[in-house]
Structures are given as structure tokens and as C-alpha cells.
Amino acid sequence: MAGTPLFPSSVSFRPRLMSPITRLLLFLQLITLIFTSNCRDYDPMLLREKTLFFSNKSAFKIALFADLHYGENAWTDWGPAQDVNSDRVMSTVLDQETPDFVVYLGDVITANNLPIPNASLYWDRAISPTKSRGIPWATVFGNHDDAQFEWPSEWFSATGIPEVQCPQENISISGEECTFRGTTRVELMKKEISSNRLSYSMNGPRELWPGVSNYVLQLSSSKDPDSPGVFLYFLDSGGGSYPEVISSAQAKWFQKQSQAINPDARIHEIIFWHIPSTAYKKIAPLPIFGIHKPCVGSINKERVASQEHEWGIMDILVHRPSVKLLIALKSQGAG
């Protein structure tokens, strides 16, 4: 894979307010990974995770979908219409680009708008275009995926008692009424993993909870499955039910894991998470300068909505030569 320096980029946009074509440009970034041979002795037992395989062709293509926000304003006409648009855009992208793998990079759903006991109904819909085409995928949590339900002010009647309005999807849940308990990260992940053989997502180490989507995947040649070509790391950047941070415990986990399975740092590593680090603020374009070409969305109009604190992960990544790419995507307009 052609080496590129670790350099965080910041993109902020309002996908729910734009046309399907614009959303296609904003939701999707395609990464083409060109692999070269990495010859070294490697113990496959060190990595007890699922392994992805690339064929004899020279490129392995990954499609990224971020801030889909299924279920947003679920009780209105506007919200479900946006979900239909997302269905269409993702289907178009997957058919035209034919990726080998898909990453759902956070805020798959808007849990704070879902008054149902099982938000995985919307989660399942979001991943269905990928699943129906037989494409494997992995997910990372964002700050809206398990956020606490927020009562819309328009629900309150003149007497001050909320008029409960369940979205249509709730009717399919036999014997259950609207509830505002919400669905936890662990529940969402367990449901996805248990019912989808193409899912490469994982409930990460228990000691890192409440952060859940912390795991690593190995990408190898189908001819030599025990020799890694690239390691893909996924980190839970928080939000929703807990602060928007990548904790020092997560940073130490990454450091320990990467040293165990890639001790000489010869295998390239790519990192995925949802909420940008505070470091992104330093390199984001200022309104007075801006980015002119190429530019889509509102990158020149909004400031970076970053994590609350920096607890060491960026310093580790910057000083690790095998880390070639960090991808963090969050729509400030969508929250």
C-alpha cells in the first residue's frame, strides 16, 4: 500500500438537508488500498479476530458511510423521507462502486429520536443495502447511536401531558408499546453480530466499556491467509450515553494490541473512529481562508465538532510509523 503520512482531515456538512446526489458525495469516501508484499514471520494466533481477504486483483476497495441518522424525526413526514433517500443513495453507490468492504463510521441511527424499545429495527435497515448485496461490513459507534431519547416539544399537549406518537416501525414489535428506555451500544452490537454472518463488527474488550466498538481486523491475501497485509483498527469515540472521548485506557489498549500483533511496525495500519480528535481543530480551514478545490458540503462554514478531551491516542498514532491513515467523519450539522 502506498504510504501516506498520518494527517487528520476535517469535513463537516449537513447531509440531512441536501439532495441525494450531494449526500452521495458527502457520505461516501472510497479508499483504494494497493497492497505490496510484507514478508515476515507472523503468529496468526496473536490475532484472535475475524480476517478479511483480498483476491489476486491489485486493489481492495472500502466504502464509508457516516452520519446516516436513520430514524431522525421519525414521527414526521420529513424524517422517513430522508431514510428513503439514504436507501437510494447507498444502493446507487454500492452498485456503481462495487466495494469489497463497507465501514459504517458512526451515527448510523438517531437514537434520541426513537421512542421504541429496540432501535436495531432502524440499525438493520441502515445496513440492509450492504447486506442484501452480500458485501461484508463493520460498524463504529457515534454520539447519536445510543443517545437518550429527547422529548419533542410539539408532543406536549395543552395539559402538559406528552401525546405519545410511535413511529410506524413500532407496530411490527409484537406485544410491545412505545418505550423511552433506549437501546444500549452492547445491545445494538450483539443484535447485529448474532443475526448477520457478513458483519465483522465486534463487542470490544469488556474493560473498555462503556466504549464498545474497539476491535481490530486483519486483511490478508487469500493465497496467504496467515500473513497480514493491513490491520484495520476501530475505536469507539464515545458520545451518547457517555462523554465524547477516546480514553487513556483505549489508547493503552491500542498500543498494547499493535505491539503484540505488529511488533516491528512493518504492517500498515488504518484507524477508524467517528468524532474527530481535538487535533483536528488545529488543521481545520478557517472561514477567512477556506478550501476552494476540491470542496463539497459546508467545510468552509462550520467549525470542527471534536471530542471533549485528548487522552493520548493522537500522540501514540503520530509516533507509530506503521499508521498510514486515520479516518474520522462526523457531521456537525447532524449533531
From TrEMBL:
<protein>
    <submittedName>
        <fullName>Probable inactive purple acid phosphatase 16 isoform X3</fullName>
    </submittedName>
</protein>
<dbReference type="GO" id="GO:0005737">
    <property type="term" value="C:cytoplasm"/>
</dbReference>
<dbReference type="InterPro" id="IPR004843">
    <property type="entry name" value="Calcineurin-like_PHP"/>
</dbReference>
<dbReference type="InterPro" id="IPR029052">
    <property type="entry name" value="Metallo-depent_PP-like"/>
</dbReference>
<feature type="domain" description="Calcineurin-like phosphoesterase">
    <location>
        <begin position="60"/>
        <end position="278"/>
    </location>
</feature>
<dbReference type="GO" id="GO:0016788">
    <property type="term" value="F:hydrolase activity, acting on ester bonds"/>
</dbReference>
<dbReference type="Pfam" id="PF00149">
    <property type="entry name" value="Metallophos"/>
</dbReference>
